[in-house]
């Protein structure tokens, strides 16, 4: 039933469901953890609290990413990217606290008083996180939802394009091309939902540690059983760091407006000048990502004549489309120049 709700309602409904369950279980874990002297359960409860924060950030990001206004011409398209960055920072901070707690547990052993109760709470936490993994797995791995601000929804199969060439002498020309299929967007998925998914996955691993620790404490009588929990906590912290760093890197690159990793700007510029008839040179080429599934580009083109710009623009669309850029702004600069001339018709 939960899986069906995810498909019908989308990421917003999934976030709300998981937020309610996680908030309720956070209070359960922290009460039981302190009452049983289980530092592992207390640590996992704060992990749950971190999940609550990430879910709130994710929910706000999903809601506001659809909001458009006259003051924000792109809307809040980067709300999800900002949410992903916040989630990554929270996860890395959490890993630091886990490492400190694990070291303290290795130095000063604190036995669990009621391991069976801890086992029950840990099992319930694992069940909740498994539900969360089902809720967010598809959203985090390529199931993208169209937003109102997007110029190129992959749900539309028919091509749509239009050219504006009212002012060829240095005027700005908007080229809009809607592709038939957006493969790269489907593969990348939403960064914010990836961040939420990593939070839930990390908490599921924390629940597994609580279960294993409770089982060993309850059924093993050797003194080393109390060291299992901190050692496994260190291992889980390493896993979380390895899975979070790529998310942090990708979201930071988008906010810094670095070109998408799959686009080589030098190669693209070379293709524009060598394969497009009438284009003498390309300068001020800028490629960046508005979000994890939308790339934007702008460029100045030096041309001998603007007579054939309509056909040239059509070819340019396909070159950028093949590179994964579907929102493009071109500024033609018509000069009777040679290839030795550079920016805006001024010779080197």
TrEMBL record:
One of its GO terms (biological process) is zinc ion transport. InterPro entries: Cation_efflux, Cation_efflux_CTD, Cation_efflux_CTD_sf, Cation_efflux_TM, Cation_efflux_TMD_sf. GO terms for molecular function: antiporter activity; monoatomic cation transmembrane transporter activity. Keywords: Antiport, Membrane, Transmembrane, Transmembrane helix, Transport, Zinc. It comes from the Eukaryota. It is found in: Membrane. Residues 16-256 form the Cation efflux protein transmembrane domain. Residues 144-171 are annotated as: Disordered. It is a multi-pass membrane protein. It catalyses: Zn(2+)(in) + 2 H(+)(out) = Zn(2+)(out) + 2 H(+)(in). Residues 149-165 have a biased composition (Basic and acidic residues). Residues 272-316 form the Cation efflux protein cytoplasmic domain. The chain crosses the membrane at residues 12-34, 46-64, 84-104, 116-136, 196-220, 226-248. One of its GO terms (cellular component) is membrane. The keyword Transmembrane applies. The keyword Membrane applies. Pfam families: Cation_efflux, ZT_dimer. Coiled coil: none annotated. Belongs to the cation diffusion facilitator (CDF) transporter (TC 2.A.4) family. SLC30A subfamily. NCBIfam families: CDF (TIGR01297). This is Zinc transporter protein. The lineage of its organism: Eukaryota, Metazoa, Chordata, Tunicata, Ascidiacea.
